[in-house]
Amino acid sequence: MQNLATHRIAAEKAEGRLAHTDRLPSNHWPRNPGMGLDLGWVLDTRVNLSATEKRVATLPGRRTVKKDAQAAWLLKALTCIDLTTLNGDDTTERVRRLCAKAMRPLRPDLIDALGMGGRRITAGAICVYHRFVATAVEALDGSGIPVAAVSTGFPAGLTPHPLKVKEIEASVADGAEEIDIVITREHVLTGNWQALYDEMRDYRAACGDAHVKAILATGDLKTLRNVARASLVCMMAGADFIKTSTGKEGVNATLAVTLTMLRAIRAYEERTGFKVGYKPAGGISTAKDVLNYQFLMKEELGREWLEPDLFRIGASSLLADIERQLEHHVTGAYSSFHRHAIG
User: Fold this and answer.
1) Active site residues
2) For site-directed labelling of 39, which of 70, 87, 296, 338 has its Cα 20 to 30 A away?
């Protein structure tokens, strides 16, 4: 096996320094301040379904990486994972174990064997319900890993609006640096874009300095046109990230939805000059899956969107499969999933 450190020159030349895994500061890019609601832009937005499906269907056959290059891509993906536990049976101990895993997502012997000893490799964030924000903040103290809280009546988003705002404020008060809100899907399905914009502006204001990720619940929005329009409205209202799903819908992240949202992000940057992050969530459980999302990100938005300040992956079991793939890269043998527990 060629050591990743000795491979770095060729890998970085080919992939734009992809092997570099040190975290960028969270304020690396100016924060999206939002803009006034431009209904003309929203209503003029269309999505070509057949072209979108054709584009994503050809991706796995066109893009592939092997050996050291693949290991570098997977290490980068690992640093972008929002390690998540959003279950009814969550406990403080489970959250603490998840935080410990976020701080040390790979065994030291694997890191050394990959030639990355001395590099700071952590997960992107921990994502929990409000109930566990303070627990996670305490467990991660001094690590630099942010805590993200799901909010606004997650996952359905149907609690009264004033309670949604108070929930955001409570999570920020407990130390959450990121808030993953859910939009009211009814506003999208009925075309009430002003209501969606006003709702999102209130959420952004309640977050203060905490960054806000707008969960569109794309599986509930029915059409890619709705996904594109909702993406634009949330960015106009000041979303720092747009996110596909809660993970609780019947259909969660897909490559077609991803392409639609990435092109909305690109259009928004071209119009305003501000970069908005992207977070696919739900159903991304294998290393093969995440590579396709990374390829699409790089092709559509560029190298900047492969870093954790602009790209996050909502996942839990994904980390275990990345560990297995990296161990196979080092040893030539696959290990059992139970050897890579996440919490």
Assistant:
1) 180, 243, 279
2) 296
